[in-house]
Amino acid sequence: QVQLVESGGGLVQPGGSLRLSCAASGFTFRYYVMRWYRQALGKERELVASISRDGGYRNYLASVKGRFRISRDNAKNTVYLQMNNLISEDTGVYYCGFDRDSVNYWGQGTQVTVSS
């Protein structure tokens, strides 16, 4: 079955960096656009970044543009999110996901906390 397993979250000071990973299995990874989402406490989940099937096209939430970079390795069935210059507003649970046949699939999420 479909599995998405995020890792790499943690506590980081403002201005710091983290690299999130999402290992995928149970589907043909290279066929799908992959996305990173986040959800802050008390807020709705929002789309942070997306990447095309071949990695040639990326799109970002305006507030993270220039600080975050999404990438993928189709040989490893993994999507990444490099996060630099983190600010407190980046705090939240980060999920990777994709959709297939109008069904959204998510991982369990990884917590990112930006605090001094």
Give the structure's gist in a few sentences.
The chain is mainly β. It is 0% helix and 53% strand. Strands 2, 4, 5, 6, 9, 10 and 11 form a seven-stranded mixed beta sheet that branches. The chain has a four-stranded antiparallel beta sheet with strand order 1-3-8-7, with no helix packed on it.
Structure in words:
- The protein has 116 residues and is mainly beta.
- It is 0% helix and 53% strand.
- Strands 2, 4, 5, 6, 9, 10 and 11 form a seven-stranded mixed sheet that branches.
- A hairpin with a 4-residue loop joins strand 7 and strand 8 (78-83).
- It is globular and about 40 Å long.
Question: Keyphrases for this structure?
Answer:
seven-stranded mixed sheet, 11 strands, globular, four-stranded antiparallel sheet, mainly beta, 116 residues
Q: β content, as a range? A: over 45%
Q: Which spans of ≥5 residues are poorly predicted at pLDDT below 50?
A: none
Spell the H/E element sequence: EEEEEEEEEEE
Shape: globular
Instruction: Provide the gyration radius in Å.
Output: 13 Å
Distance between the termini: 40 Å
How helical, in percent, are the residues? under 10%
The averaged pLDDT comes out at 97
Compute the number of strand runs.
11
Figure out the total of helices: 0
Decide which structural class fits the backbone: mainly beta
The main β sheet shows up as:
7 strands, mixed
Q: What is the element layout, followed by pairings?
A:
Elements: E1 3-7, E2 10-12, E3 18-25, E4 34-39, E5 46-51, E6 58-60, E7 68-73, E8 78-83, E9 92-100, E10 103-106, E11 110-114
Parallel strand pairs: 2-11
Antiparallel strand pairs: 1-3, 3-8, 4-5, 4-9, 5-6, 7-8, 9-10, 9-11
